[in-house]
What does this fold into?
Amino acid sequence: GYEWDVGIHYIGDMQRPKSAMKKLFDYVTDSKLKWADMGEVYDRIIIGDTSYDLVKGLENFKKQLIDYFPEEKEAILQYIDLIFAANRTAGKFYMNKALPPFISKLLYGWMTKPFFKYADQTTDEVLRKLTKNEELIKVLTGQYGDYGLSPKESSFFMHSTVVKHYFGGGSFPIGGSSQIVKTIDPVIEASGGSILIKAEVDQVIIENNKAIGVKMVDGKTISSTYVISGAGLVTTYDKLLPIDIVQKYALKSQLKKVNPSVSHACLYIGLEGSPEELGLPKTNLWLYPEGMDHDQCIKNYIADIEQEFPVVYVSFPAAKDPDWSNRYPGKSTIDIITLLPYEIFSDWENSDWMKRGESYEELKESISQRLLEKLYEQLPQVKGKIRHYELSSPLTTKHFMNYSKGEIYGLDHSPSRFRQKFLVPRTPIKNFYLTGQDIVTEGVGGALFAGLLTASAMTGKNFMKKIVGP
It folds into this structure.
């Protein structure tokens, strides 16, 4: 009797009709997908007992931060300037990925040099040139969970993309995340396409170095002029391409140059009572320990998961969706996410979903109870109202998403990731293309934009100009 929005917690730029992301979503859904504004405060960063609101609107965002840290005004203004400067370099960098190989190579240096000025630095390196205030740095990097890599490991470009993405506030799909596919499906079908479910691909069929279709697990084949994989680089090269092709083009050597992103646990909670009755906010909560920077918190936790969680993210999808109570009157949901190393669950790697045994369930229960305690500290009124909860582990993500280490965001977003020239739509195999978050960046927006780049690379058409405008 409950429904959870797996992976969709909030999207930025949906309240600005002229934003590129809004135009892309309108294009692929024929403007049928509608978005609810989360309100003035989209994220609340809570460090120990102190909270900091990230508020909608650039000027409001600036003012609020300066109110919290008045002595750091100059650093905050410089930081925001850098966020915009880094984002301005992205257009040519991504455009280069869609160009024909010869032109891409010819123009690569000119089109990418400004981008790497920001992408080659870690988030921590950039911020420490602006300020020595540890609390401010921790607040400014309080959304690092949105891209899954700590400040000392992540590319500043990735950080700047996420931060700017939410300057206009956060939005949630009205009717829940299932509305994304429901509104895209008719557009695909109207163009002669189909979405197949429970249709597992065994291998891409390649003849004379040309992709001609896919072989399914049940033995059937589907012929096609083009084949595009959005399954992620690792899954595609490890599981979907014939081994002789992988060896011929040394594709495994590419995998050695990139790393999987972070794995996680998510606690899905069902409660008795409407969001209004329970006083659930729309604002996301980011809970952090005090006294250490994000990287040190993670290091301590990785060494011993009984240490304090380095980050706990709490989302309230039932409160964000104005249509929720029409579908589930008198009920609510909450999602709680934290980092969880895949290696903790390696003993159960070869077990089946929902049949992993008592010790696995005991480990999940102990983690669940710790996360519930974090929830009660923030919202004591929900204690006694929970009717169901269920924890997904990295093995759950691996089961459903086919990611080898249960990673949440595909490849990690380190500076070196953006230097890999093979993360482009084209492959050495004729008529075989890549798309998805490994080609651009993580998340729904990154994957959507990757689709645009792949379509442009395949057709030679500038879809960005066609859909978004100059």
Q: What stands out?
A: The longest strand covers residues 264-272. The first helix runs from residue 20 to 29. DSSP finds 20 helices and 15 strands in the chain.
